[in-house]
Amino acid sequence: MANNGKRAYHGRRGPAPIVWLIALVVLIAAVVLVIVGVSKKEKPDPDPDPVTDVQTPDDGQTTDDPNTTGDPGNTDDPDTTDDPNGGQTVSEPYIDASGLLQYPTAGHYVQADSYQGGGEAPWNLLLVNDWNPLPAGYDSDVSFSTVSGGKQVDSRIIDAVNRMLQDASAYDLAVVSAYRPKEEQDVLYWRKVKQYTDKGYSDLEAQKVGGTIVKRPGFSEHNCGLAMDVGGSGDYTLEQTFANTPAYAWLMEHCADYGFILRFPEGKEDITGVIYEPWHYRYVGEEAARYIMDNDLCLEEYLAQVKK
Ligand SMILES: [Zn+2]
Q1: How many A from CA of 282 to the centre of ligand 1?
Q2: 68 inside domain
Q3: pLDDT grade, residue 3 (50/70/90)?
Q4: CB 3.0–4.6 Å: which of 21, 44, 170, 289 could bond 256 by disulfide?
């Protein structure tokens, strides 16, 4: 009995570890397969990059190295045609009848219900960028006032500018550049474009690259008189080094109190079409400025949100 009992005992214990081992291996394999399967399923959406399929001018912004401009930057948009004027939807920059580079507005906010279309958006929210040119004859209706240092701004903002300069006098805040008539922009633009056509660039490529450095006439915010480039704390270079100065820190905290915003924030390049410019400020009025600065927006995002 004892032997039988032992045999029976051994007989029951003998195969048991193998069964358990197989079961364990199968279980581990199943778990591994599930984990692999799940991780594969999570991978298809790894890129939240909001870059639009529209070629923006800042694509060439970081460089004026001609070697990097051979690639026209075509996207994988299947609708892109070789002849941008031939199709109904234009998705690539093209030269218009007047010879000026134009950027298609698809994917960008257009202020069509206000200045561009003759509506009634407040003057302080006028949008001027690569997709929203200054309305024809705009500055003939505007009067200008001279700031300390000789630059000109829209007379409606001179008080705000003067108050801001005075309150930031501890940082020697000063206006380096402000209103620039469209005609002056025209000269600067074509001079820059010529530098590239002289190097052998096509007209289109020369305007695309040159236009990232000097904006096309009528497409620069400086043409409207509501924007200015400033310096302070000993840095008047209009370079990104300005972001390290106490003057800049003061502006980040206080510019909205005077109705100004940092117009080209870091990280918004695809929306504004302009690189981060810590020196460029735009008057939009105190209410909009406070909202924009508090919520880390750019003007385009604000206008799209409030539908101005
Ligand atoms: Zn500027």
Answers
A1: 9
A2: no
A3: very low
A4: 289
